[in-house]
Amino acid sequence: MLAISCLCKKAALEVALSAEANGKDIELSFCHCTSCRHSTGLLFTSYLPIKEPHASQIDGLSRHTSEDGWTRLFCPNCGCHVLRVQTGEGEESTWEVATGVIEKATEDDEKAFEAIKVAGNINVGDTVDGGASVWLPPKNDPQAWRMDPPTPCPEVDSSSPGDAPADTLPASCACGKVDLYITRPNPDSYLASSGWPDLTHAYHSISEPERGNPEDIKWWIRDNGNKYLAGTCACRSCRLVSGFEIQTWTFVPRTNIHFRVPGPAGNGASDGRTTVALDFKTLPRGILQSYESSPGVLREFCPGCGATVFWHDKWRPNIIDVSVGLLRAREGARADGWLDWWTERVSFAEDAEVGRVGPPAQRAVELVSRLQTGLGLWTQ
């Protein structure tokens, strides 16, 4: 059996890899489709086939069925995506487990793990710009992605539901509860203060005073005040509140984040919504669900579809980590016109195997290593 768990342990259970592997390799693909991105808040997902779990094991999980036909099951407490199921012809169901929640495997499933082969990136066309696929080159040919450029998908929805002001970056989850937009950096964007993130200054290599950013550098503002910093993270907490190994964040001042909420039309809205500045105390109930992942650290997710939305803490309350998979930039999933991607380091890369043992841990380390290599090649 595979032991799986979310961060809060509410979705802790055992599942078994599917028997379909008999004599065949199990293919592991990185999916970049629109439904995966907006259902999870991440730029890509990965799942493995499993046998159907017993109903009693999953009774307490929340569910959301996306346009792609998959029903995703997530923890209602911390938001972690755990499983997904799709019912095909003849009422046969296909079950899969999110790879980030796998902690360890029994001896039999360890052998099955040896048969898992990374098949590559799928549904890249939905991203328009290639999304994170350009950072995930095939293992044996790190340059291969250059020979297969992404093809724009005409069905991609690159606009937020309803109206959003010009020159703003819309973002929304799969079910539409979370509907917001981001504005360009402005003078107020420089008023906040923050220590350095592990993304740019690895915590294990600098002193605590240095970590505090004593020169008060506004590191979240990039490109001469036109963009925000964005990057990747492999820490255990991000993995277990999303369900997947790699989280993608951008760092945005709270003053530049605006929600569109149900109510009288206003501020140019014409669809029965009004615009409000992000204030966690006054935001209407039911839009975000908060989870304290560690003392003083809060993570928000959509209670309707489980999409990861924010990370913030009490020490830097005015800089918010926004989950990039929610963004709907017209230029593509990476939102390169708005974000400056940090490619020198995967945040908390050293923690890739924390909380995991055996083959699951080895696979996680391999993925982070591949991502770091791909980031470097993309920069070149």
TrEMBL record:
Pfam families: GFA (PF04828). The keyword Lyase applies. SUPFAM superfamilies: Mss4-like. Residues 1-114 form the CENP-V/GFA domain. The keyword Lyase applies. InterPro entries: CENP-V/GFA, Mss4-like_sf. PROSITE patterns: CENP_V_GFA. GO terms for molecular function: carbon-sulfur lyase activity; metal ion binding. Keywords: Lyase, Metal-binding, Zinc. Belongs to the Gfa family. PANTHER family: DUF636 DOMAIN PROTEIN (AFU_ORTHOLOGUE AFUA_7G04120), GFA DOMAIN-CONTAINING PROTEIN. This is CENP-V/GFA domain-containing protein. It comes from Parascedosporium putredinis.
